[in-house]
Amino acid sequence: MTREEVLALCRKARDVGSVKHEEFADYIVVLESRRKVADQWQTVEHAYVAVDGKLAMANEDHRKQGKRLDFHEPKVLLDNPEQLTLLVTVTSEIYGTRHGIATSRKKGGTNAERDFPWEVAETSAIGRALAAMGYGLLPGAGLASAEDVMRATTPPTVEKERAARRAPLMSANQRNKLIEMYRERHGGTEAEVLQGLDALFMSTFKHSFNEATVEEASKIIGQMIAQKAERGKK
After folding, report:
1. Distance CA 144, CA 208 (A)
2. Domain ranges of the chain
3. 38: how many CB neighbours lie within 10 A of its CB?
4. Rounded to whole angstroms, how far apart are CA atoms 137 and 54?
5. Are strands 96-105 and 83-92 parallel, antiparallel or unpaired?
6. Which of 23, 35, 39, 126 has its C-alpha lying 20 to 30 A from 80's C-alpha?
7. Nearest CA to 178 among 145, 134, 117, 224?
8. What pairs with residue 76 in β-bridges?
């Protein structure tokens, strides 16, 4: 799927308040699936907005309109050795209250689900709540984010192969956003910021910042946004 095709798909999606989907095209991840058509297998491409893209849309929309957007503390619906299910409620002064529910599979899930079940479930639940407000709703994508689809279609054996090649890598927008948010919190020169992000990703995912995937970058951005909101309440 070319960038022009992605932009055309964005234009088919409804605007949300003061923002347009095409303005956030760099947050879109194109994923492939196999489908049998007339006894032949064909590769089909689908575009999904990453959770950080939905967050960026929502924050920009509310900033432009001067309205509040609040993320409430996640509620645990189920927590056992096999899975963790969280409900996250998001309240907007413009669109009211929406909630999202997501599950991390502690057994049989991806490495990220097993190692970081809370972060994965919370990020996905936030994405679903924002999708319910209309953010990131591309034609044919439903409420799923890019991270949701990748987890659902990636068995553990494939997850190991992906870890070796670290794909798909984070987008340029995600990289710039992480640098911006880290500098806002910690300050420092560009070299110091990159060194700090390297340390953060090394401690969290066991690899450097430059090797971050779309899903990993989205998780850290979501955590930083949640931490910033928490600091604002104090």
Report:
1. 28
2. 3-166
3. 5
4. 9
5. antiparallel
6. 126
7. 224
8. 86
Residue 40: Cβ-neighbour burial (10 angstroms; 0-12, 13-18, 19+): exposed
> Looking at this protein, which amino acid is placed at residue 34?
R
Give the rounded distance of the alpha carbon of 38 from its chain centre.
35
Written as six digits, the tokens of 173 are: 């927008």
Q: Is residue 45 within 8 Å of 212, Cβ to Cβ?
A: no
Amino acid, res. 91:
T
- Amino acid occupying residue 169: L
Question: What radius of gyration, in Å, describes the C-alpha atoms of the chain?
Answer: 18
Environment class of 167 (CB within 10 Å of its CB; exposed 0-12, middle 13-18, buried 19+)? exposed
Residues 6+ apart with CB under 8 A from 61: 16, 17, 18, 19, 94, 135
Q: What is the pLDDT along the chain (234 residues), one digit of tens a residue?
A: 888 999 999 999 999 999 999 999 989 988 877 777 777 778 888 899 999 999 999 999 999 999 999 999 999 999 999 999 999 999 999 999 999 999 999 888 877 788 889 998 999 999 999 999 999 999 988 788 888 887 776 655 445 555 544 458 889 899 999 999 999 988 888 888 888 898 888 888 888 898 898 888 999 998 888 888 877 776
Q: Does the pTM exceed 0.85?
A: no
CA–CA dist 117, 187 (Å, integer): 30
* CATH fold for the domain made of 3-166: Enolase-like; domain 1 (3.30.390)
